Amino acid sequence: MIVTLDYDVKFEDFPKTFLFALVSRYCEGKECYVRRSANGRTHVKIMEDVEDFYKRITIRSLLFDDPARISNDIRRHAMGKPTDRLFDIKGYDGVVKHAGEWIPLSFLASPPTVNICQSKKTSRKRR
Prior knowledge:
By secondary structure, the chain is α+β, with helices and mostly antiparallel strands. It contains three helices and six strands.
């Protein structure tokens, strides 16, 4: 089963984020795709054969998937219902929205260089 991620980040902003850098690093040597969700946010799917539900949940957690989605999938799994779903179509008040086409993650801009351990230097005036 594939690993799916849902980010509450506008699709056009995704390549500028830490999440994109993290997913890009994880996807090195893997087949990964991205698309605009029906609400203009970001969906990712990683074509990795991970049959164990709890391994998929661990991967999703480490890649900062939506925590509410993870929690709901744990409940669904306990009840024997499908998990790891990403919706292709959503409808509100009679308006139907469609998700975009899947494109290879590599088609987006190169991930930004992110050093999460770097401290900010502050300048002090000398007297």
